[in-house]
Design a protein that fits this description.
Helices cover 65% and strands 6% of the residues. By secondary structure, it is mainly alpha-helical. It has a two-stranded antiparallel sheet with strand order 1-2. Helix 2 packs across helix 4.
Length: 66
């Protein structure tokens, strides 16, 4: 079996919400430090689903850029 370009797409495409969510959590302020920690734990330990949940619900709780 040889490696083709779409193998990388199949592996990395589902991880994009996770990477974006981690970046967004670190670069924005939250009402409480515990909220930031909770979102980071969710996104890191439940990678794809946690990132999608953060994009649809947690992004609205962020106050603004640090």
């Amino acid at each position: 079996m040889s490696f083709v370009w779409w193998h990388a797409v199949v592996v990395w495409l589902p991880m994009l919400p996770t990477f974006w969510s981690i970046w967004h959590i670190w670069s924005h302020d939250f009402p409480r430090p515990q909220a930031r920690a909770l979102w980071l734990v969710l996104v890191v330990f439940v990678p794809v689903i946690g990132g999608i949940i953060y994009i649809f619900t947690g992004r609205k709780t962020a106050l603004g850029k640090i």
